[in-house]
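FAQ

Q: What does a record look like?
A: Structure on top, sequence underneath. For example:
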């Protein structure tokens, strides 16, 4: 094990002193979404990431499997479309590229082109992005934010 422990060196993101136009800085990381008047979505006891789509066979990825993959830390800002920014957050987790190359790519039928990835949250909101963007070095499946896991 390296002197850094089980983590790879944190990814360094170039810091900018100004926020994007229209953003306001907030302290911490507030809960966000369209249903703020109601309770947050229930988090399942046995967390899994559901892998669906063009894979040969759909499968569930238990979060315990993520614990077996190389982890990394990343300090980055979060800019919400609602106009707030939480800055200098310390994210920790597994790179999406590691999950994709190790677990998803081998489950694809041979010569299957993948152009986009769809992420769906517990609240039902979804985001579709280009696979090359999802495979960028700074994309994590984060399970820790600024300290112990948030459940």
């Amino acid at each position: 094990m390296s002197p850094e422990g089980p983590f790879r060196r944190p990814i360094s993101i170039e810091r900018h002193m100004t926020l994007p136009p229209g953003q306001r800085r907030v302290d911490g990381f507030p809960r966000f979404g369209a249903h703020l008047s109601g309770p947050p979505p229930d988090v399942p006891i046995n967390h899994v990431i559901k892998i669906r789509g063009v894979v040969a066979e759909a499968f569930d990825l238990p979060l315990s499997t993520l614990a077996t993959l190389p982890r990394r830390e990343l300090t980055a800002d979060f800019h919400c479309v609602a106009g707030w920014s939480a800055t200098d957050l310390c994210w920790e987790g597994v790179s999406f590229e590691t999950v994709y190359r190790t677990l998803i790519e081998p489950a694809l039928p041979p010569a299957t082109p993948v152009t986009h990835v769809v992420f769906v949250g517990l609240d039902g909101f979804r985001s579709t992005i280009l696979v090359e963007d999802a495979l960028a070095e700074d994309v994590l499946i984060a399970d820790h934010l600024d300290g112990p896991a948030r459940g």
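Q: Is there anything notable about this one?
A: The radius of gyration is 17 Å.
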